[in-house]
Amino acid sequence: MLLVVTLLFATASATVLWYGARQYDAPGPLNAPAQVVVPHGGSAAVAGVLAQQGVIRSRLLFRATVLGTWGQGQLHAAELAFPAHASLRQVLEILRHAKPVQHELTIPEGFTAAQIAALLDNDPLLAGSLTPPAEGSVLPQTYAYERGSTRAALLARMQAAMTKTLSEVWTSRDPSLGLSDAQALLTLASIVERETGVGEERARVAGVFLNRLRQSMRLQSDPTVAYGITHGTRPLATLSRADLATDSPYNTYLVAGLPPGPICSPGLAALTATAHPAPGPALYFVATGTGGHAFADTLPEHEANVARYRAVMAAKSGGAEVPIPSQGLLGSDGADAVPPGAAPALPPFQKGVAPPVTRAPPHPHHRRHPH
Q: Taking 70 as the threshold, does the pLDDT of residue 163 lie above it?
């Protein structure tokens, strides 16, 4: 009788082992790849979540297998990715050795500190509160992070990336650049970033602004005026005459030299272009009306470019008169020139004087105010 019982027990054990072995490598029930947040706790808690998400069939078999393979490592709590029909062996391998799912957040070139803070605040996968960053302190690029990462930690990485990149760009700058320090480079690069979305124009735009600085000419950059009014918290569709008269250290129609700080976060391309500006004496640029800008060394050349711009815009508007909104890099040479230490006057608005420095098409990922 004892022999019979022993044989039955042995047979049952062999059957269980055989079944378990088959289930260990059998395709699982998951119909499509899935990302599952695996909780902290024992195997029972993990089994419950996996069964609920359709990753495993049997909680009991899962727990038994975890116990039987405990020497292969502990189960990790994280957001993990499971392939379709993952076997029990694959599931345990993922739970023990796979890296957590990496999410991505892209900071577009030209975003302001307020826009960057909003991106971080509105990301539901991040945790914790956030102190808004200083303007221009974040490097625009794509950052990978795990679910549950803190906003403060991710922001610190973004700022460290800008600090490192700015230092490298400043170290490799053109020796004749003429800017006082890396912060001045960052400020000018932010203006270049907002002035054009055409990559090949960045170095030429930087060259124009640097030439104007050398000659004590006002920068007359519309994006700086807009930033002085909104501080990057909202878009400003157009600039009025009253806007151009705004008393602000960012109003480069009124204030000589660079504004007190960046107006956005410039990308690596804008930083590099500003550190290595295009050579040449150009002092003006205006939109072509067909994409991009036309550059000029002298005011007569610039006025000819302006005339062409007006003709293109008039044709697009069916012959209607093209209005003369705010000026940018405009006016006579005498009106633009600002002796060192002098307080420049608001440039005149005269009919026939050049129209605005209309911007090139914006970056596809953000809206730039039209001019």
A: yes
